[in-house]
Design goal:
The protein has 128 residues and is α+β, with helices and mostly antiparallel strands. It is built from 2 helices and 8 strands; from the N terminus they run αββββαββββ. Strands 1, 2, 3, 4, 5, 6, 7 and 8 form an 8-stranded mixed β-sheet that branches.
């Protein structure tokens, strides 16, 4: 079985399979979702099994050619996330972490006509 971080990333990306999803950097023209796993995850559990439970933080950068298009990508991603399945684990909870964020113009690229949102999420799992 893959390490826990890779296992969780695979499950989240599979849940978003109806969208153009890339891992860590934008490879597709918008609309697309750029998946990032974030620092700050936790592994915890009882004394007999201290690495049992996982809190897995991730970000979905939702990119569109307009503010409305970026919001639609974020809405579509949010609608798909309840379908996340992690092999060998049970999803206990999935929630936004710090709100869903506001739409921003991508002024740092050669194409400032792109817009994005960066909702962050936390996924709690335990062995199945």
């Amino acid at each position: 079985m893959p390490p826990l971080s890779r296992l969780h990333a695979m499950g989240v990306k599979a849940a978003l399979s109806g969208l153009a999803v890339v891992d860590g950097h934008r490879e597709h023209d918008p609309p697309c979702v750029v998946f990032y796993d974030l620092d700050g995850g936790q592994i915890d559990g009882p004394l007999a099994d201290p690495d049992r439970d996982v809190v897995y933080p991730f970000q979905l950068t939702c990119v569109g050619i307009s503010a409305a298009a970026a919001r639609k990508v974020a809405d579509d991603a949010r609608a798909a996330l309840p379908n996340v399945v992690i092999e060998g684990r049970r999803v206990m909870r999935l929630e936004p972490d710090g709100g869903l964020g506001g739409v921003k113009s991508d002024d740092d690229t050669a194409d400032p006509t792109l817009f994005y949102l960066t909702p962050k999420w936390r996924l709690w799992t335990t062995p199945a």
